[in-house]
Specification:
By secondary structure, this protein is an alpha+beta fold. The chain has six helices and twelve strands.
Length: about 270
Amino acid sequence: MHNKAFDALNIEIVTAALGAPGLFQVEILDSCESTNTLLLNRVQQGVPSGSVVVCERQTAGRGRRGRAWLSAPGDSLTFSLLWRFPAGMPPPMGLSLAVGVAAAHALDDLGAAGVSLKWPNDILVDGAKLGGILVETVSEGGCHVAVIGLGLNIHLPREIADAVGIEAGALSSVMAYAPSRNLLLARLLRALAAVLEAFGRSGFAAFAEEWRARNAHAGQQVRILAEGAAPLEGCCAGVDEDGALLLETAAGMRRIVSGEVSLRKP
């Protein structure tokens, strides 16, 4: 049986595992409405790049399109990272996809097999949703500031699995020993720092090839649902250098910048 107390979040353990003094300022909370909302509200207060809020229980945690993020204390890792990009950098197109690549790097290093990415913000393992990404950006003084929310299932109680209404996965189901949340957080943050620094120099183009290699729906027939638009169907042909989904339809190639992707049923 999973012992939550044994895997308690601990700032000293996280700091030691990071091994990068000054790069991150990590705050651990027992409860908050939403780590993304909390950091967005702090942007104008001048909080530094690398500010991280980790929360055991989010009472109003959000996914994309305002969906609720469901998790049980101790069974998942949910946090947000504030990152300030260099002045003059173009809008960070494809950032959520690059974050997915960073998460995959960290999970690979920890020994998780079968990690793939679903456009634009899901992390899958063996085809089931392991976690999700929520990127929100604001402009301040000519700079783009991103608040990057990330949630990963470590264990998945049946009541949560039943409530989410989708095929969900957890690290404990694909690893002999699921990593401690403190180690997982440190590895994710280190991977994110490397990817975000490169993204600040080169944008998503630096990660497009790797994302394509991890594309969970590569070459498959998919259906795209977007608000205010008719559904689109076609073959998932990957992404372009800005992170837009390329959909090969009967009418030709379409470039999709927003929407929900699902496999098309026969």
